[in-house]
Amino acid sequence: MAINIESSVNIEKINQSGADLIENAGKMFTSLQTIKGYIDASKSYFDSPAGDEMRRKFNLSAEKFGEFQSFLNSYGEFLKTFSGNVRSFEGAVQEVIGEIPVM
Q1: DSSP 22-53
Q2: pTM given for the model
């Protein structure tokens, strides 16, 4: 006799969100690196103190791109692990429920 354990949380969506977050973090990092190249190349047509300051500030932010990607990857992995743990728990509970003697 099997009993369904209903959850108000869609575990598959959580798992997919984790995978999507990791994929999109990589895409965002690549885009930011491309933008950094454009900003760095702007010196040839925006060579002024204001242009130098803009490039300096952008490059300071760019130092955090890898850290930002790493944070998003870690959170994505957490979501995937969490969803896997919930699935394992639900499976274990279903197994135990199946072993309960019925009168």
Answers
A1: HHHHHHHHHHHHHHHHHHHHGGGT--SHHHHH
A2: 0.71
